[in-house]
Fold this sequence. Notes:
3-stranded antiparallel β-sheet, 5 helices, 3 strands
Amino acid sequence: MRHRVAGFKLGRTTAHRIAMTRNMTASLIEHERIITTIQKAKAVKPFVEKMITLAKDSSQHNRRQAFSKLRNKDATIKLFDVLGPRFADRPGGYCRIIKLAKRRLGDGGERAILEFVERTPKEADVPMDVDTEATAS
Length: 137
């Protein structure tokens, strides 16, 4: 019976699981989209959403709390300078998990994309308008 046994163990020791969660969160903050297994994505998502909630209020206390959890200076800076203001008026649900059809090579694990709901647009990702393309040539 699994009474009162909550949380994801992921077949790892506690120290490994905490380090993996911190690393995946820092990678998600840096790249705003990562590909991982469904189970890891489900385990990391609540941690990331708590970090975003902390970043909505950019006080010194919240910065120190976020750094103590993340242990990554660059990720903490981006979290408070970019992501916190972006999600300031959103009440929750900052991340989404998109399941991928193709399984992972090796062990056949189910893969998923963990990404922020609102992402930073890049010039390369924005398609050119049809009218602009016709007038440019």
